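queue> pop job 88
queue> type: inverse folding (structure -> sequence)
queue> payload:
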């Protein structure tokens, strides 16, 4: 066998490898382009007002389910009986029209220990009165980037019950939400 034939076979192997690589990349590109992808929201919307009605009917508690404007939706709504700590809670997680998170939690028959456990790592920085409801403003001692859901918490005590608003929304959305919740708290208590 001559040197020329060996060189030709060696070059042919490299050429075949390059052609094989191009063919494989072409097939992958075609598959990526033709396979459909679902870009829809995978988080289910929850009928939080129905959950609140069912919980109120079964427990007899004055549960608040804030009626909000267009664009708001719930991604979570739970009624939990206080099997472990003796505190029944209703909690709803809401997404604002600009995709910010706000949660509302209502505890029934709460005590200072339960409230303190909800606010671990926060200090009270002020109070706000809205529709006759006094809200304590609690802020996290440590600033987080991105913000965590309990970096800013509003707490209202109504008799033996406690209402909390927290999340990662901006102050304007908190204000809108607080006004709505305050009016409904005054209606049910």
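queue> result:
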């Amino acid at each position: 066998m001559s040197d020329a034939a060996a060189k030709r076979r060696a070059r042919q192997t490299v050429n075949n490898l390059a052609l094989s690589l191009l063919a494989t990349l072409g097939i992958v590109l075609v598959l990526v382009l033709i396979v459909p992808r679902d870009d829809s929201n995978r988080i289910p919307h929850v009928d939080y007002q129905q959950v609140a009605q069912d919980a109120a009917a079964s427990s007899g508690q004055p549960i608040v389910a804030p009626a909000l404007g267009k664009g708001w939706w719930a991604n979570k709504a739970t009624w939990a009986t206080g099997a472990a700590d003796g505190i029944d809670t209703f909690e709803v997680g809401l997404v604002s029209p600009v995709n910010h998170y706000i949660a509302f939690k209502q505890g029934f028959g709460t005590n200072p220990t339960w409230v303190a456990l909800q606010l671990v790592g926060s200090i009270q920085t002020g109070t706000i009165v809205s529709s006759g409801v006094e809200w304590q403003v609690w802020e996290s001692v440590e600033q987080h980037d991105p913000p965590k859901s309990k970096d800013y918490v509003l707490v209202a005590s109504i008799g033996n019950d406690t209402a909390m608003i927290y999340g990662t929304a901006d102050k304007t959305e908190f204000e809108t939400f607080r006004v709505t919740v305050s009016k409904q708290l005054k209606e049910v208590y």
